[in-house]
Structure formats: C-alpha cells, structure tokens
Amino acid sequence: MTLESASHYVFERPIRRVAVIGAGPTGLVSARSLLDTGRFEDVVVFERNEGIGGTWVYSPDRDTHTSIPSNHPLTVDPPATLTSSSPPRTPTKSALYASLRTNLPHPVMCFRDDPFHAVALFPGHGEVLQYLKEFAARHGLAGHVRLRSEVVRIVRDSGRWSVTVMEANGRIYKETFDAVMICNGHYYVPYVPEVEGIKRLVEGGTVEVMHSRDYRVPEIFRDKVDVIRFCARLPCSLQGNAYSASDIVREALPFAKRVYQSVRGHQIPAPTPTPTATSTIVNPAQGIDSVAHVRPEIRRFLPPREGYMRGSKGSVEFVDGTVLEEEVEVVVFATGYLFSFPFLADFETPGSGPLVTDGVVVHNLYRHLFFIEDPTLCFVGLPRKVSPLPLSQFQSMLVARVWAGLVKLPGVEEMRRWYEKEMLDEQGKTLGRKVITFGLKIEVAYNNCLLQWIRNGDVGEGEGPDGNGDDKVDGGDKDDGEMRYLDNWWVDMRSKALELRKEVLGL
Ligand SMILES: Cc1cc2nc3c(=O)[nH]c(=O)nc-3n(C[C@H](O)[C@H](O)[C@H](O)COP(=O)(O)OP(=O)(O)OC[C@H]3O[C@@H](n4cnc5c(N)ncnc54)[C@H](O)[C@@H]3O)c2cc1C
Asked: Per the record, where are the segments of Low complexity compositional bias (predicted)?
C-alpha cells in the first residue's frame, strides 16, 4: 500500500537497494546519478549484453528473429519462458550501421559535465562507445554492472520489486529491490505495419523484406533492381530512424539499379547523392540511377503478375493508385520502433494501470518518468526528438534525489491530474506519440524544469524556463557542473545541428 500526505508523495519505506535495467548511456548515467547522492546501499545495473554501451555497441551481425509485420510489443517481443530448461535468450543486436556518424554535434550530445575529447564534431559509433566506457570508468560504475544478465521479469512483492534475472549461461535467480529504473532503450523492437500483401511477400521468399534496424552495409543492395524504403508511419525521431532512412537510401544508391523512397505525404525530399567511398561504381551506362525516386505511401504489395516466370518478385501499389512497373527486390522499412518491456508483462493485465499496450507510448507516467501508481518504478529516456544523453542525465538526477528523500514528489492525485491534462484527450484516451515527441523548445523547457525542481526541492507551480534563449535558460554557473541549466550556446548549436551536419559531413 502506498502512503500519501496531503500534497506530497510519501514512500512506504526508505529506498536502499536500486536496480537499473540496461547499461546503455541512460543506465550508466542513472547509476552515476544514484551513486552521486551517496544515499543508496546498493545500486545494481543489469545488462544482457557482454559489454556496456547499449546502442553504441556495433555488431556486424543482424538479428535473426525480426517479425514482419511487427506491430504489437508483447507478440513480437514476448516475455521469456522461465523453466530450468529454457535456453538463454539471444540479446538483440544494436540498430547501428557500419558507416554511422552521430546526428548531433558532440558538445550537444554529451553528458553535461563529461565532454568528448579529441574527436570529430560528428563522431563515429566507435568513438561514442569509447566515450561511454571512459564515462563508466571515471565514475566508478564497473563494479555495479552485471553483464550477460537479462532481466526477464519484474513483479511487485510486498511493496518491493522482485527482479528475475537470466544469465547468458542459463542460470536464473531472483533478487529484491526497493526501486527500479528502467533504462532498456527503445530501438530494439521494430514497428513494421500490417500492409496488405506483406505476409505473402515475406512468405514468398523472393523479396528481401527488412527493417532499418537490421541494415548494416550497402553491399546488400548490389545489383538489385529496385529498393524501396517504406514511408514512416509513426513520427520519426531525431535519433535514429529519420536519419537512418536517409542514410540507407543514400548508401543504396551506388549499388542498386533503382531506389524508390516511399514517403507518407511526399514531404521528405529525396536525398541528394553525395560522394562516398563506394560512389565510383555508379555507372549510368549500367542503368544505375543516382537519385532516389520519391513515391507516396504504399497501399499494398502486389503478387507477381500473371505470365511472369517462377521466382518473380511482385510489385508495389501506392496510395495514389500508381503501380511500379518494375519488380521489387529489397524492401527496407524505416518505420520506427515500439516501446517494449516484456519483463513487465504483468502490468498489461486489466486493472493494473497498463504501461505499453500497443507500444506507441508508455502510459500512466508522471512527467514521462514516474509510474504514478508506484513511483518506485521509473522509466528514464523515453521522450523523443531530444538529445538523449543530457535528457536522461537530468531525469536520473531528479529520480535519484526523489528516491533519496532530498527532493519532493507530488501526491498521487496531483500526478494523476497532470497526466490527465497533458497526456489524455477529453475522452480519456491517450494523445499518442506526439506528446512525447519533444523538439527543441519543449526539450529545453523540460530539462530546465527538472533542474529547477531539483534545485528548489519541489516541482513548484510553473513549467520551468521556456527555452526561448532568454535569461532563464542560462541560469547556471560553470561551477555548477551537471547542475547547470542548459546554456544558450547549447540551445543554439542544437537548433543548428542539421545544417552543421550537412556543412561538416555533407550528409
Ligand atoms: C541508428 C541510431 C542512431 C542514433 N544516433 C544517435 C546520435 O547520433 N546521437 C544520439 O545522442 N543518440 C543517437 N541515437 C539514440 C540512442 O539510442 C541513444 O544515444 C542512446 O543509446 C540511448 O541510450 P539508452 O541507454 O536509453 O538505450 P540503449 O543504448 O538502447 O541501451 C539500452 C541497454 O539496455 C539493455 N537491455 C535491454 N533490455 C534489457 C533487459 N531486459 N535486461 C538487461 N539489459 C537490457 C540493452 O542490451 C542495452 O545495452 C541513435 C539510435 C539509433 C538506433
């Protein structure tokens, strides 16, 4: 049972043991924030992979188990079966592709008081991973991380959290914690829409259908007649799919004979080809195009036309009724990702304040962070279209201080009021992904609001500085380290990230 004072939440017991799920950037900075308070007896970070770094651990291998379509988290990413004979689960591979360079300049991307050193303005993934390893070393995190340890179930047990862990060697054990920070990332479970004809396309086996998560190198497109990038059905986020999609199209151009880019509403212009190490093979005489052909959203995939020989591949009809004359050989869906917490499947049952349902948003959270029903459970790093590292640092600094009893959290009624006002429509239905898709202005206001909350010890009435670059934004002092408000130069550079990237990388 939770206790509640008139206006502030009162935790039932002091929080001493904390579990952090995931050792990507968010899990690492969360561990640091918790340890920095000096108030917790034990902070354990569970990581299913062999190393820390999350998304930034590049793997040349791709996942072998992508479901297509993929539109419900608990169906495509089900909870683990927990019997002594269960084989250990294979961790999902990161969505990074070989050539990836960051989409944010590193001074904007880094944790607040831990700059990158001596790297290009838009570093490659190897440099980001190195940065994260150095961050973990500098803040003494290694001793707190348990590698090859997948959290497979989290259930409430007498006011605490029972965490079940499956090690890579198959050993299963349980441990109890007072609080849990979920930092499991959200670029692992692809969203692939149920488009008419897609199952037939996959079953036919003659067309390669994949999600951008599984793309690694452009050689897979060599000599392919047509490559389609499917339109984004969900709003794209700045980190990942929007950039990934354009990068994949651009990388496919020198290899595929023709690249079609299917874009909802025709709003995204075709990328301009840029010289790459592989561009020398572009040879118009061989029928290779140098620009992608932009088409509207796909209505359905068509079976091979009658009279075509066995092994034919089929084609595509778009929503404007046009049909591709040519056959398709590879289809890449860059359609985004689903939130998925298979280890919290018990929360999807009626009456339990569901968390993900269809994977589009996470429900019942106060300020995108605290699970209202029991704020000893927190989700760090959910907002989209943000610079994720600083955002998760602000969030975890707040959660750590709330759990340590240094900062106040409003009572359940107030948290619920905020949730209903900000996250639901008048009929009580979720407003969907748009409310967690921030963009610069909301991102700055949100981050600075969290910091104001930390500094004041209470959330207060206001929503925090508005992020317009006025004097409230740069309210800090250099000596405040990570406790500074976002600096004006940061806001400025963040707003120009796209132009800067084009200028520096030509991408
Ligand atoms: C293609 C791509 C490009 C991107 N480019 C940028 C960029 O340029 N700049 C930028 O700032 N961000 C970028 N991002 C966003 C990126 O996700 C964030 O930088 C960052 O990795 C988010 O950190 P995280 O810790 O929340 O998630 P992740 O990095 O995904 O880490 C989550 C960790 O949790 C672990 N985990 C998951 N489930 C369990 C479990 N049940 N038990 C134990 N461990 C578990 C995972 O193995 C993983 O290590 C990009 C993302 C993608 C996909």
From this structure: 78-92
Distance between CA atoms of 356 and 379, rounded to whole angstroms? 12
Asked whether residue 424 is assigned to any structural domain, the reply reads: yes
Ligand 1 mean position, distance from CA 272 (Å)? 29
Question: How large is the average pLDDT for residues 55-68?
Answer: 88
Looking at the fold, whether 311 and 403 belong to one and the same domain comes out as: no
- Distance from the alpha carbon of residue 186 to the mean position of ligand 1, in angstroms: 7
Query: Which residues surround ligand 1 with Cβ inside 6 Å?
Result: 21-27, 46-49, 54-56, 91, 95-96, 100, 102-104, 109, 150-151, 183-185, 187, 239-240, 244, 343, 381, 387-389
Count structural domains, the chain: 2
- CA 331/CA 210 separation, integer angstroms: 6
Number of residues that this document lists for the chain: 507
Ligand 1 midpoint to CA 95 (Å)? 9
Q: Are residues 301 and 180 in the same domain?
A: no
Alpha-carbon distance of 17 to 38, in angstroms, equals 12
Task: For residue 380, give the ligand 1 atom closest to its CA.
Answer: 26
Residues 182 and 314 reside in one and the same domain: no
In a domain, 3, yes or no: no
Q: Do 323 and 219 have their domain in common?
A: yes
Pairing between β-strand 9-10 and β-strand 3-4 as defined by DSSP bridges: antiparallel
Residue 46: left (phi > 0), alpha (psi -120 to 50), or beta? beta
The rounded Å distance from CA 373 to ligand 1 centre is 26
- Co-location of 161 and 233 in the same domain: no
What is the residue type of 458?
Answer: D
State whether 431 and 405 are in the same domain: yes
Residue 226 pLDDT more than 90?
A: no
In angstroms, the CA 323 to CA 293 distance is 13
In this structure, the residue with its CA closest to atom 21 of ligand 1 is 55
pTM for this one?
0.91
Task: List the residue whose alpha carbon is closest to atom 15 of ligand 1.
Answer: 239
Its domain, for residue 381, covers 17-189+338-464+483-505
Asked if residue 188 lies in contact with residue 213, where contact means CB atoms within 8 angstroms, the answer is yes
Question: Is residue 45 very low, low, confident or very high in pLDDT (cuts 50, 70, 90)?
Answer: very high
| Residue nearest ligand 1's atom 41 by CA | 151
**CATH at residue 373:** 3.50.50.60
Q: Is the pLDDT of residue 18 over 80?
A: yes
How many angstroms separate the alpha carbon of residue 381 from the centre of ligand 1? 9
Atom of ligand 1 nearest to the CA of 244: 1
Beta-strand pair 42-46/298-302 = unpaired
Assess whether 404 and 316 both reside in one domain: no
Average pLDDT over residues 377-386: 96
| Those residues with Cβ within 8 angstroms of residue 117's Cβ, 6 or more apart along the chain or in another chain | none
**Rounded to 5 degrees, what angle do the CA atoms 200, 359, 110 make?**
115
Is 425 found in the same domain as 349? yes
